[in-house]
Design a protein that fits this description.
- By secondary structure, the protein is of the alpha/beta class.
- It folds into three domains: about 130 residues, Periplasmic binding protein-like II (D-Maltodextrin-Binding Protein, domain 2), CATH 3.40.190.10; about 80 residues, Periplasmic binding protein-like II (D-Maltodextrin-Binding Protein, domain 2); about 90 residues, 2-Layer Sandwich (Double Stranded RNA Binding Domain), CATH 3.30.160.
- Helix content is about 35%, strand content about 25%.
- The chain contains eleven helices and 13 strands.
- The strands form three sheets. Strands 2-1-3-10-4 form a five-stranded mixed sheet, sandwiched between helices.
- Helix 1 links the parallel strand 1 and strand 2.
- Helix 9 runs parallel beside helix 10.
- The protein is globular and about 75 Å long.
- It binds ligand PBG.
- The ligand NCc1[nH]cc(CCC(=O)O)c1CC(=O)O binds next to strand 8 and helix 7.
Length: about 325
């Protein structure tokens, strides 16, 4: 007698940081997967990461590579969780052995937003008063904005979105630069005062998209995750990540990007800037979306030829000196 025994439906454990933004993103992924696969159970497991614990040190000083992802990655390697949901921009471009970027979901607006104190509600990024105090914790935003607006004062800002908003509203800052996507996802879209145009500042690699990381050997899960992948976002982000991977040397660097897809053609623009905003190199490449990663590498090489390496070497040297 033959009996057909199907294996019991699997329970899949999703790892997430505990921050409000991370949870909103993770529950969204859980819901999408649950809709596509009603017979599978998807459970959320939260973990604190190093980045959630060190809230008082400037991120630019400690370098933020892997700060928000390491504990989740260990969880996957130890099989405590099956996959992790990340803001793709926080996921290092090189993953630990045995883990892969299995899917990239549809991107929100990847741009940065200007958020202002009440008293500047009639101003824009280019019309704030001389000396206006602008809060940002990213070298990329700092370098590009300093280049354009050397007459503003830039000040580091840390903490979660609510903390940062409270500091702004209390008058500690005149304006903040934050990702549009994070504000939207946390229901604070009404605080987006101006979307920073790409002519003023390019966004971070992977900004606005979610990246799902899992064990490379888990073919069954990887095929499920394809259900929530957004191919256009994936191609754009693969090009952006290849560009960054080719240029970075182990720490947070002022690198910005912009990508567009028209038909089968992907256009990638990248910028490398010095922290003081004095030196800037920018260029654009285009090609087939199927060559996304090749385009990223090619653009990195182009910018190197135009002096990007010297800019980056100077930043690495400064970090080594601890300044
Ligand atoms: N580094 C922190 C971080 N990681 C992801 C987002 C926002 C959402 C996103 O960019 O996908 C933010 C906040 C910000 O940069 O304002």
């Amino acid at each position: 007698m033959t009996s057909v025994v199907s294996s019991p439906p699997r329970t899949i454990r999703i790892g997430s940081r505990k921050s409000q933004l991370a949870l909103v993103q993770t529950y969204w992924v859980q819901e999408q997967l649950q809709k596509s696969f009603p017979d599978i159970t998807f459970e959320v497991h939260t973990m604190s990461t190093q980045g959630d614990k060190i809230l008082d040190v400037a991120l630019a000083k400690i370098g933020d590579k892997g700060l928000f992802t390491k504990e989740l990655e260990l969880g996957m390697i130890n099989k405590e969780i099956d996959f992790a949901v990340h803001s793709l921009k926080d996921l290092p471009t090189r993953l630990p052995e045995g883990l892969v970027l299995a899917a990239v979901t549809e991107r929100e607006n990847p741009a940065d937003a200007l958020v202002v104190h009440e008293k500047y509600k009639d101003r824009q990024i280019d019309t704030l008063p001389e000396g206006a105090v602008i809060g940002t914790s990213s070298l990329r935003r700092l370098a590009q904005l300093r280049h354009r607006f050397p007459h503003y004062t830039f000040k580091d800002v840390r903490g979660n979105l609510n903390t940062r908003m409270a500091k702004l509203d209390a008058g500690e800052y005149d304006a903040l630069i934050l990702a549009v996507a994070g504000l939207e996802r946390l229901g604070m879209g009404d605080r987006v005062h101006q979307i920073i145009p790409k002519e003023i500042s390019l966004h971070a690699v992977g900004q606005g998209a979610l990246g799902i990381e899992c064990r490379a050997e888990d073919a069954e899960l990887i095929s499920l995750l394809k259900a929530i992948e957004h191919p256009e976002t994936r191609d754009r982000c693969l090009a952006e990540r290849a560009f960054l991977r080719e240029l970075e040397g182990g720490c947070q660097v002022p690198i910005g990007v912009n990508t567009e897809i028209q038909g089968s053609i992907l256009t990638l623009t990248g910028i490398v800037a010095s922290v003081d905003g004095q030196k800037l190199v920018q260029d654009t490449v285009s090609g087939e979306t199927t060559d996304a990663e090749k385009l990223g590498t090619e653009l990195a090489q182009c910018l190197r030829d135009q002096g990007a390496q010297e800019i980056l070497d100077e930043i690495f040297a400064q970090i080594q000196r601890g300044s």
